[in-house]
Amino acid sequence: ALEACPEISSVEQFRAARRCLQIFGIKRLREELVQERFLDGETGLLTNKLQPFNFFARLAAGLTSQLSSRVLQAKLGEYQDRYLIACNRTEAELMWESEDSAWLGKAGLAKRHVMMTVKDLHWEWFNVLTFGLISGIEVGLEKLRQMRDAAVQWAEGMEEWPSGEDLGLFVCCSPMTRAKAMQLHILDMTSPGPSFLRFRHNYLDLDSAIEALEIELHESFEKVWLRSIISV
Question: Does residue 81 carry a pLDDT above 60?
Answer without folding.
Answer: yes
